[in-house]
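Its record is set out here:
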Amino acid sequence: MKKKLLASILALSILATTGVTVASCVAFKDKPTSESTQTQSPDDQVTDENGNALTETVNAMPSRMTFRNAKMLSSEKEYEGVTIQATVKPDNATNKNVSWTVSFLNANSAWAKGKNVNDYVTVTPQSEGSNIATVECLQPFGEQIKITVTSLSNPNAKAESRVDFAKRIVSVPFEVACSEENYSLRYLDFSMEALSLNVGMTWDLWIDEPACVYSDYTINDSFATTLEIYANENVLAQFSADTGITPEITTLEMDRTEGGIYGPLVSILDGINWNDATLYNTLVDWLAQNTDKAMFTLHYKAVGQYSTYEAELPIYLSGEALDVLVTQIILNQSHIII
């Protein structure tokens, strides 16, 4: 049984004191002014056998190169790969033209069998016979790849470069559970535009580190991870100014027990009389009029040797399922004569 720390978002006692029923724990809505972010760094860095980054210019052909990104994973800019140059000796060789080929180191391995290596790595010479070529990684791969450059005048004269792909995080599932309804949504992730939580529920939120989705890889990596849920101060300040309600925000330390990371945030409204229907309606009205303001943000960061994954997800509070309470009853006449 995994340990769960509660994330009680505002108005812990709303349901108990008003009798209002919330129909759903989690809502999904497009939020036009804010959206989640995911970044991977470094974006297109390729390193040689010594861990040195290959530059955007022409690089001496390394004996081994490691890709940290792939064309299909690159989102911030066009992915251009890396350009390498093979040195042909002697300098006065009559025909210095070469050919380039790419192949799996073990084409019969469980991962590579039946796959086309050119779907993963391509080598394109600058011109026919050129000793300069551009290497592109199109997608992550799980079997080491070999680039071979061979002299056209002497097939026995050749050089090889081994190509690896470093493990990286593709997505991070997390789970949100509403304890009041014993209701759980598993494996949400940061591809969502936003998470909208209905006010008045007690929430559990956690990430299981082993559940992260990783790319294929030939070089393993480990990640130091952090998770936090923080309050967006400007939004809370506006909330307090508009409603007269000042929440006391306490961010708890992260708990890493039982192989997971638990990101609780407790928002406590001390001294508020939730039997005051006018105050209650003020809260409901504010939430209805400020659907584009995220009060909280879920932030996750994982730092590895070869790449860093960082993501944020805005958390909105929803009052759509809450009733507007009656505050008074007015008779049409001040008195009735019978």
Summary: The CA atoms of residues 150 and 156 lie 8 Å apart.
